[in-house]
Design goal:
Elements (H helix, E strand, L loop, with lengths): L1 E8 L3 H12 L4 E4 L16 E3 L7 H21 L4 E2 L3 E5 L4 H12 L4 E4 L1 H7 L10 E5 L3 E3 L1 H14 L3 E3 L4 E5 L4 E5 L3 E9 L5 H4 L10 E11 L13 E4 L2 E4 L7 E6 L16 H14 L9 E9 L6 E4 L6 E5 L9 H13 L23
Parallel strand pairs: 1-2, 1-12, 2-9, 5-14, 12-19
Antiparallel strand pairs: 3-8, 4-8, 5-7, 6-7, 10-11, 11-12, 13-16, 13-17, 14-15, 15-16, 18-19
The structure holds flavin-adenine dinucleotide.
Amino acid sequence: MAMYDAVVIGAGIEGSATAYTLAKNGQRTLLLEQFPLPHSRGSSHGQSRITRIAYASDDHYAVMMKEAHVLWRDLERESCINIFENCGYLSVGTPEDPFIKDTLTSLRKHGVKYDIISHNDIKSRYPMINVPASTIGVLDHSGGILRADKALSAFQECFKRHGGTINDGEPVLQVIPGDVVTVKTSKSTYQTSHVVITVGPWTTKFLPSLGLHLPMKPIRISVHYWKEKWRGQYSIQKFPTFMYGSVYVMPCFEYPGHVKACLHDGPEIDPDDRDAVNTNYVTETVQKYVSEHLPGLETVPSVTETCIYTMTPDKQFILDNHPRWKNIIIGAGFSGHGFKLAPVVGKLLSELVLRRQLSYDLTKCRIDRFLPPKHQL
Ligand SMILES: Cc1cc2nc3c(=O)[nH]c(=O)nc-3n(C[C@H](O)[C@H](O)[C@H](O)COP(=O)(O)OP(=O)(O)OC[C@H]3O[C@@H](n4cnc5c(N)ncnc54)[C@H](O)[C@@H]3O)c2cc1C
């Protein structure tokens, strides 16, 4: 039976970053994925994700982002793949809005270059945005777009170069805990000193067999692309990534002449039955937003794609050892903001495997926040 130092279950961005870091640290690592790669059934597919250093309310992620930013650049160099497009991140709100105030605090604290943009200046710099006169903009110069598909394949390719093995189209059916863990899949059985479970939206289906019932909710996100009325207005040279209210917007990037604008919310789903839910209200909400705030766009989406967030009640990640079996490590609940942090998530999950001192305080990401003492294993 094949024996590994670590088996990582789930080849999304978090599992791929973890497997890569483990292999780079000399660990014989197997990365198992249920679907043939690449696939579009989880949370890490598609061509773009927003990145930025500042975090309005969760300073621990801003601290991690400073290193993530460096690690993305390192991955670009190692893979020779261009991943980061530095077009900026514009937050819009009233000066009293806690989101704006906390974003400014975070930018100042972490020494990130930014501009405060008055409403008049928003109108002259970004005439393609229509926001209320009471609002201001904060442009975070560290922000921009990560090429998601390319980032995922960069981690997987570099993982293989460091000696790692990827077996795709091979779902894990059972994990049998012990000093040596047995991992049974649809095709084979493996033994390993450590298992890392990074199964994204499938976490709530996977963990009960290991005695864990964590309050996570997979939700379906509709990814809408809206055609420019006049070609070039929202080009990446003129327009940053943009957040106002609960909709986020990206300049024309993946599909020529199309802006990506999506609601940061959606209905709860079963990841194996993802599309069996009505999302008309999501489309209608973004449609109204586009009519009001992005007047240079057609108001019917040209293309709609689908992705899944896995939400925790407090929107904090889960990065921890299994409470009972310390050689089983869990990375989950990335709550719609985990992509940009993946290189640091990979580093932290690897540190849990290697029993090294953690680079960051993970108190807020611990599993026991969901386990009252009587339920602890
Ligand atoms: C539309 C959208 C926009 C987003 N925008 C941003 C953004 O702008 N910035 C940002 O930072 N983050 C963003 N995110 C969030 C980010 O993409 C996710 O947090 C991240 O991709 C989560 O990755 P993951 O590896 O945990 O999950 P996944 O990518 O879902 O990976 C889990 C993998 O595990 C596999 N798996 C499951 N069960 C098994 C099994 N039994 N055996 C083997 N394999 C299994 C699955 O098939 C899957 O490939 C966005 C997400 C979405 C959906």
